[in-house]
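Hi W.,

Here's what went into the run:
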Amino acid sequence: MEKPLQLCPGSVKIDFASASYAGKADIAATAAALLHALGPPRTPPCYQLPLAKVNSSLPLWSPVICPSTFAQKRPMSLPSPPPAKKLQVQQSSSMLPQDFPKLEVLPVEKPTKLQVRRSPQHVSPALKQDSPKMEKPLLPRPATFIDVMLSSQKPSSEMWSETKDVTLTRKTNCSCKYSKCLKLYCECFEKGRYCIGCNCTNCCNNVNHENARQDAINVALERNPAAFMPKVSNSTAHNCESKAAEGDIMGKHTKGCKCKRTECLKKYCECFKASVFCSENCRCTGCKNYKSNADRISQKNTVHAHHVQNPASSGMVGQSVIIFHAAENDSSLSLAASVSDHSINNNTSHALSCSLTSSVTREDAKSLVKYVPHEVTYRPSLADIIQIEDVNELCNLLILVSRQAGATLLESGMKENTKRKKLNRVDSCLSSTNHDREAIQKEPAKQMCSLEKSSNEVLIAEGRLELPRADPFDIQKGNKRPLSPGTQALMCDEQDAVFQDSKAPDATPSTTEENLVDIFKEQEKRVLTNFRDYLCKLATCGKLQELKLSLASTNCSEQAFADHGNNSSITRVAKVTRIRQTIPQFSSKAASTTALDV
DNA sequence: GAGTTTGAAACT
DNA sequence: CAGTTTCAAACTC
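Here's what came out:
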């Protein structure tokens, strides 16, 4: 006997509208059509839908099935397998399965499977009429331990997502043949859901075999009480790119994996599959599924030569690994850092990682890797080339150049001023005072003083010179934070201007300003010229260093490959070629950068 | 799509 | 607990 399904306020909520906010417009439309076919609820809904999330084009009522009414008024026989297609709309997440019957509307091709139709045009014509066929309403079943656990442990959104996954948009259907979908081999069973639209054979993971299913659940629970618990705890799946980029990935597999061959970088690995890094729970071998992408790359060079144990087991896991790698900022590495893409870009990263791992053994590398919680450190590629002494040296050089330029021009300027003063003296007939003369002469002296002070301040900052006594230019007094040489130089210029305004009011403005402008121009010119030359030298050093390390790493890699006998000459040649190709790129880039900067 | 590989689950 | 077998998904061709 087939009767149209009637909706009434009750304990069952079929959240069709949720499909809409899951971005499944077609499904939502299907659901809407289904609801329309079923007719509106006769009374206001018992539960409010999350209106903010509901597509306005969809009915806002919450379709509800009243089990009691359903059971009492329309007692239906439990038929043998349904004849044709059916759609099972599972209960919403917040409801326990025993509370609600299941709505079946569309026939399924397989007797024991429930097919999902995703497009409105696939809705059964019978549905588009007002009388869906209820061949087999699912009676309430007792809540299983799984149901309780899953319901209690997951927020409703997650549960609904999973429910959606099962009923409407599930991407993975099992294909079990021998387990009857009643063992944990079966993904559906493992996740505590019925097989719906699966390709399994002899499936018992459905309501028709509820008893067998319950038994299987009990067996599984007996063996492992956490068998149906979520396998990933505290999960922040690292396919969330923003979090991954920030390194804010905390989830881990509760049981861990034991991968041996896949380096935990394939979906065979449960951790990888669950989008979490391997953790201390894992007992994997050659693991590369841990946070530091650079370490993955580094290990890629040594994994062939060494049996690398799970870094998590040695504390080298998750947040704790410092990237001991040069090219963290490299775009190719950023790409590789995308956790969803665990493939490693071998072009630049390989060369760079080779450079850094070239001459170290695994033990050396271990000692080099430092552990700092929740911190990732960027190590510049020129870190070993540019030392603080070099920076100081550069600063000194620039200061000296600046001083020389200033002194040279000041000397000529003083001569001019002296001439001009003599003329002024004649013109004013001894009207000028010594004060005036001193004031004028104080200007170049002040310039010299200024330059001297800026130089001294650099030296002070370097710790090479003791702090002078009370000094009007002492920017470090008053417990202020020491300034960089560049800042000090800038402030020195500013202070010169102040000094000029306040202490040389009597100086001839035009003459002094012209001199100063000339001095500054010359100083700037010489400083920049020397700075450019310095950068060119630096670029050369970097180039040589890279070449040296690359060649060394090439030799190292070749030896490693040779040790394991799985190297090919083609691969080696390709790697060497790749490494060497990076060198001119770097040097040309550095040169162009230098030219632009200068 | 068939065959192979892989690792978890199940079993001993 | 370790080793082996079974199983199904992932992967390769």
